[in-house]
Amino acid sequence: MISAHSQRSTRGWVLIILRWAAALAVLGTLVHFLPLAPLRAAMARVPVSSYFSVLLAYLLAHCVGVAKWRMVVNAAGAELDFATSAQCYFGGLFGTLFLPSIVGGDVVRLAVGLRRSPRPAAVLTGNVVDRFLDVTAQAGLVLMGLLLVPELDLVPDDVERRMRNALPLVALGLIVLLGLLFVLRKRILGGRSVRFRRRLARLRHALRAVSKRPHVLALGWLLGTCMQLAFLMLTARLAVYCGLTLQLRAWLFAWPLAKLAAVLPLTQGGIGVREAALVALLSPFGAPGHLVLAAGLAWEGVVIAGGLIAGAVALALRRRAARAGIA
Q1: 240, 273, 271, 236: which is closest to 258 by C-alpha?
Q2: pLDDT tens figures, 124-159
Q3: Short-list 124, 102, 98, CA closest to 111
Q4: DSSP label of 264
Q5: DSSP readout, 142-190?
Q6: Backbone torsions φ then ψ of 69, nearest 5 degrees
Q7: What angle do CA 96, 101, 107 make, to 5 degrees?
């Protein structure tokens, strides 16, 4: 048992080292093909006070994220207080960047909540729903960006036509997949233990509790969208300091798609992938690659610093709970 746990831990740390190495390799490739001196000059133009102002705004936006996460999981019946929710959320923010797992952030976020809540299934269900709201908020921005493609004439007409023709096929495929899952649900769940079925029943109960409060779902989606827009605006602000001024619609087109590309588990936290995608997506707007990379690196610094601060906050809240005698 101990040996198996040790092997999993070793594989996890090897994975995180490989992802950080991949991130550095991608960034190194970008720096190699872009002029280094103008890149350094652009990053040096960001005032220190303005950088910390952006960092503060980034952390405040995540405080809204804490409130949103708590609202959703409590709608499922988790009964978590704000301090516990903050420990879960900020621990997850740290884990996303620094822990050796694809879902490291969610594992940390759930670990405390499952112990503290009288209804662990509600925490699990609420976290899934919260993630779904984040995905739909991001998808809304991606859709907004894609709608700008014909207006900005960034892709050939035949590519645009194929994209439009593919949408009904994608929708049909999703409908067929959901139909198959519904038809085969008894076979998939058949033979499971009574304990598993009880857990599944608790999850269904928590999901029904959330679905009966559509105003919570709507407010959660709205808050998630506002958070993503805030991050977009902060990135654009850093770009202005670096000397890159673009129309907002350019950022609405490129930023959500770059963040979507960063979801791929190729590098740790999407570092490097996000910057490379931004350079490629903003180049049709005439944005110099070294200025885009400078803005991306400045934003990456905010994200990493915010993750470290979030980890320190989560640790402080954990020690506070330990002193109070909370498990």
Answers
A1: 273
A2: 888 888 888 888 888 888 777 777 655 555 544 544
A3: 124
A4: S
A5: HHHHHHHHHHHT-S-HHHHHHHHHHHHHHHHHHHHHHHHHHHTHHHHHT
A6: -60, -45
A7: 70
pLDDT tier, 249 (very low <50, low <70, confident <90, very high otherwise):
confident
What tokens were used for 31?
Answer: 């720096």
Query: Is a pLDDT exceeding 90 seen at residue 295?
Result: yes
Biggest CA–CA distance in the chain, Å, is: 65
Band of pLDDT at residue 194, cut at 50, 70 and 90: very low
Q: Please determine, for residue 231, whether its predicted confidence score (pLDDT) is greater than 70.
A: yes
Classify 286 as helix, strand or coil. coil
Token pair of 141, please? 């921005």
Please compute, for residue 221, the number of CA atoms within 13 A of its CA located in the half-sphere on the CB side: 13
Measured between alpha carbons, how far is 239 from 233 in angstroms, rounded to an integer? 10
The span from the CA of 6 to the CA of 42, in Å, is 45
**And the tokens for 103?**
């879902």
Task: Kindly report each contact of residues 308-314 with a partner whose C-beta sits within 8 Å and lies 24 or more positions away, as own/partner.
Answer: 308/94, 309/59, 310/59, 310/62, 310/90, 310/91, 310/93, 310/94, 311/90, 311/91, 311/93, 311/94, 311/98, 313/86, 313/87, 313/90, 314/86, 314/87, 314/90, 314/91, 314/94, 314/108
Local structure of residue 108 (DSSP, 8 states): H
At 200, is the secondary structure helix, strand, or coil? helix
Distance CA 147, CA 152 (A): 9
Nearest to 244 by CA among 282, 281, 280: 282
Q: Which contacts qualify for 227-234: CB closer than 8 Å, 24 or more apart?
A: 227/61, 227/62, 227/64, 227/65, 227/68, 227/137, 228/137, 228/138, 228/141, 228/256, 228/259, 229/141, 230/57, 230/61, 231/58, 231/61, 232/141, 232/256, 234/54, 234/57, 234/58, 234/299, 234/302
